[in-house]
Amino acid sequence: MKNTPRLRACLVFCLTTGIAVSQTATPPPSSDDETITLSEFTVTSERVSGYRATTAVTATGIGTKIGDTPLAISVVTNELIQDTSGFEMREALNLVPGVLTNPRSESAVTIRGFGGLISYRNGMYRRQLMTTWNMDRVEVIKGPAAIFFGAVRPGGIVNNVTIKPLFTGNFTDLKAQVGSEGFVRGEAYQNLKLSDTLALRVGVGGSRSDGERPYEYLNETYLGLSAIWKPTENQQLTLDVEEINRRAFYLSSYPVRALANSKVYGQPGAIAAQASINRQSTTADSANRAYLTSLGYSGTVSAANFYPLYDMFAPYGYDTTLTRDAKQWMEGRAVDLDYLLKIGSSLVWQTSLNYALDDTAGIQPSDGDTRPYADGTERFRSENFINIRDSYNVHNKLTWRVNVLSTKHTIQLAQEYQRVIFTRPGYMDAAKRYNDSPGNTGSASSNPYVTNFLPGVTTPVSIWSVYNGSGQTFNITRKRWENNAGYYLVDQAQLFNDRVFVLGGIRYNKFTGKITYDKPVSNSSLSASAPGGLIDRDVIGAKGAWTPQAGVLVKILPQLSAFSTYSESIEPNFQLDADGVASEPVTSSSWDIGIKTELMEGRLTSTVSYYDISRDNLAYRDTTREVATGRSPYYVFGNSEASKGIELDMNWSPVNNYTIIAGWSHVTEAETTKSNNATFVGRRFGGIPENTYVLWNRFSIPSGAAKGLTFGLGVRHNDGTNLSQDPQNVVRLPSFTVFDAMVSYSFRAFNRDLKAQLNVKNLTDKLYREGSDGFFGQSRMIYLSLSTRL
């Protein structure tokens, strides 16, 4: 991990200096971002006051009105994040219908049945550290974002937009929080208007928590700086810099995801049958299947006497742990530089540069956590890893606003380039094979397992001692280079006196890549043909493709619109076959049909949409060809998946002091539709409930002795569903309903406006499982905060 003491010192100096300056400044009201504008449109989204956002930049690349865009768009505003006391972007996404998250992994997001790492920050991809520091809003675009993002999963994408400096004056926002399990968090943001052409925003923050389970902790620090400089009235430079560091106990040390079989786990006959097996060489899977076989059950899915390997969660307690010193280090940095040039009255040039570092490392138990023996014991080894992701992005875009007869057009022509370098130190064994995680490879004789460990009874071990006993260490480095170039042309047209809005365009994506090692290895795909069977490189490649998108929105009435959108996207597959032929990309297509409303003078906005997504050209190994030729790998392309459903997103303020947000998602289909493994066809994806809904209410007392009091109450529900699509795993995730509550009081003291707020998450202390791996959700937590603007 790298340190940047000069950067930290500079940010702290700017912040403390700015606080002194702001002591005499009057707090400014909320206002729109200071941006270069063209007639009737802006190149960024607007700042928001309240829960309702009217524009979104993620969907179309410019700050387009959500009600005029033929896409399903959800926005979680900063005010809603603050009211619900969200610390991770994952918590904000729990308020969006059709989006599922995982309490164990902040980066794992599922939209409309399809999961993956699909999160962006200010339009640039990020992998980790999705904390709500300086977060202005979270925009969720449903469906394949074909034109503007190209190579993405088909369910949609998530983009968090950071707060930028304002030119309205000098002020400082301060917030302090305390909570359950030793939680402490503080943050400060300083806005400085240095001149009419230069403004800065500096932020610092930190949090710590002891956690509710043994050995659990999470410590995090934040530093941020953003600036807007307008050298001329037609030019603007925006700089945004961020660094986040996190240290935490590794949650995989808690074996609460462990799966078992009710006919084996705890059964005296099974315990006796497994008493004499060698647990260094025999896995729990094979031992448990052997016992099922002795009972007359088959492991073949199509057999009449088939019985699955897993049908229950192992009954380990919420706070059981395998180790006492598993640890994770995470560091994230981002530098965004955006240049805008207004050329004439209808043309804007925009160049965006980005560098991002996502560095994660850790040591955790491996090969445990999921496979207990009949007596409830597990075996595991260690896994030590370092995974560094450096990315470099260059985006250039020309935006032209032109009227043709009675139609208005916003045309964008853009080029994007991204280079990502994955650096993965690893372990090279005696056979010169590269392994990405020391401590987790080799035979049991040379690298023994911890065996006969009974969670909740056996004293947690030191994972560092287990790792040191493996005799393995980092002694080789692999670098993987991936390059992605994209080019797109898009037109957003307004026709028939702004009653019809059309979005259409096309994008071309091109991918290249390579792999290098700092030492020759024997397990590269090129090793077999290299002298001595050793080589210091590997080849990867992926075919590109065109991805179109077209949509139309018709205003049936000024308050009622109907829309439909068709879109395609691709996911690159960087594997080469044995002949060096690049793999075909995974292709996706999506139809959206929906209705948008804006009733009661904008007090009630809603989107109802039906979607139909197909994900095709998934690859599987061509074993017949591999056997015939004696070479591998070879692939067959053609497996497919599908997802269909209905979503409702509503924001309603019937009176000025009461707001309701509500969302509902009904996933009618999320399954494999074609596969070389027939047992998967027609089976529902794991962890995708049929119905989910969310509701949040906020009521403020506008007058009288209780003026300043605000109450919030929310509910979130997931139906029960299957944990996995695999027929060998029939474990169910039970349904759950959790409640959150908030009460705040705004008052004036010490010549300052202050706000005290109490949040209770999981009000009824519900014990529930969530996510694709069934990790436990958060138990009841209580937080108290005090905030002010100086």
Task: Give the N-terminus to C-terminus distance in angstroms.
Answer: 35 Å
What is the averaged pLDDT score? 88
Would you identify the regions where 5 or more consecutive residues have pLDDT less than 50?
1-41
* Relative helix content: under 10%
Which band does the percent of strand residues land in? over 45%
Descriptive report:
The protein is mainly beta and 790 residues long. It is 8% helix and 52% strand. The strands form 8 sheets. The protein has a 22-stranded antiparallel β-barrel. A 5-stranded mixed β-sheet has the order 5-11-12-9-10. The longest helix is centred in the N-terminal third of the chain and has 18 residues, at 5-22. 44% of the residues are buried.
Please describe the topology of this protein.
Elements: H1 5-22, E1 37-38, E2 41-42, E3 55-56, E4 64-65, E5 73-77, H2 78-83, H3 89-93, E6 99-102, E7 105-111, E8 114-116, E9 119-121, E10 124-125, E11 135-142, H4 146-149, E12 156-162, E13 171-179, E14 183-193, E15 198-209, E16 218-229, E17 235-249, E18 259-260, H5 268-273, H6 284-294, E19 312-313, E20 327-343, E21 347-366, E22 378-404, E23 407-428, E24 434-435, E25 450-453, H7 463-470, E26 476-495, E27 500-521, E28 535-557, E29 560-571, E30 586-599, E31 604-621, H8 623-629, E32 635-655, E33 658-674, E34 691-700, E35 709-718, E36 721-722, E37 732-733, E38 736-749, E39 752-761, E40 769-770, E41 775-776, E42 781-789
Parallel strand pairs: 9-12
Antiparallel strand pairs: 1-2, 3-4, 5-11, 6-7, 7-8, 9-10, 11-12, 13-14, 13-42, 14-15, 15-16, 16-17, 17-20, 18-19, 20-21, 21-22, 22-23, 22-25, 23-24, 23-26, 26-27, 27-28, 28-29, 29-30, 30-31, 31-32, 32-33, 33-34, 34-35, 35-38, 36-37, 38-39, 39-42, 40-41
